Amino acid sequence: MKQSDNVSLPKDWDIKKLGEVCKVIAGQSPEGKYYNSEGIGLPFYQGKKEYGEKYIGEPTTWTTKITKEAEVDDILMSVRAPVGPVNFSTQKICIGRGLAAIRAGKNIDREFLFNFLIKHENEIEGNTGAVFNSINKTQIECIEIPIPPLHEQQRIVSILDRSFAAIDKAKANAEQNLKNAKELFESYLEEVFGNGNWEEKLVQEITKVINGYAFASEDFSPTNSIRSIKITNVGVKEFVEESSNYLPDKFNEELKEVQVKTGDIVIALTRTIISSGLKVAIVPSSYNGALVNQRVAALVPNEKSMSHTFLYYYLITSRVANYVLNHVNTLMQPNLSINDLKNMPVPFPILAEQQTIVRQLDSLRAETQKLEDIYKKKIVDFEELKKSVLQKAFAGEI
Question: What is 14-148's CATH number, 3.30.565.10, 2.60.40.10, 3.30.450.20, 3.90.220.20?
Answer without folding.
Answer: 3.90.220.20
